């Protein structure tokens, strides 16, 4: 069994897609074992996106992720990390497969509705940040 960290990001919470996104995970056999709504502080955002802090698009990410509440959750299941990345779809909604969260709900490559851990190591690191 694996654990992974998901963030439902401001654009999705603002447009009332929390329930629809959670349903996609549950329908695919993943179990929600922790869940909370919060405002991401600059400090949390910088820790979470440490690998992107130096990138040109980072100020945009920071403004976006802190502008309104997010939902943080832990999902558990077999191959949860890869499964959730597949359910979420490609970073850019133009490239996201049909029926994925980003295909259905993302606004743009930046405002792309969800985050999910990309490896066992990042899942462990990110769960500690948010829970
Ligand atoms: O979220 P994911 O792991 O699919 O993508 P990432 O490459 O780790 O980038 C993290 C987040 O930064 C993305 O989900 C976007 O919100 C944002 N981003 C962006 O605004 N512009 C880019 N060119 C790349 C990423
Ligand atoms: Mg990433």
From TrEMBL:
GO terms for molecular function: ATP binding; metal ion binding; nucleoside diphosphate kinase activity. Keywords: ATP-binding, Cytoplasm, Kinase, Magnesium, Metal-binding, Nucleotide metabolism, Nucleotide-binding, Phosphoprotein, Transferase. It comes from the Bacteria. The keyword DNA-binding does not apply. Its main location: cytoplasm. ATP binds at residues 9, 57, 85, 91, 102, 112. It is found in: Cytoplasm. InterPro entries: NDK-like_dom, NDK-like_dom_sf, Nucleoside_diP_kinase, Nucleoside_diP_kinase_AS. Pfam families: NDK (PF00334). It is an enzyme of class 2 (transferase). Transmembrane segments: none annotated. GO terms for cellular component: cytoplasm. Residues 1-131 form the Nucleoside diphosphate kinase-like domain. Homotetramer. Belongs to the NDK family. Major role in the synthesis of nucleoside triphosphates other than ATP. The ATP gamma phosphate is transferred to the NDP beta phosphate via a ping-pong mechanism, using a phosphorylated active-site intermediate. This is Nucleoside diphosphate kinase. It comes from Clostridium cylindrosporum DSM 605.
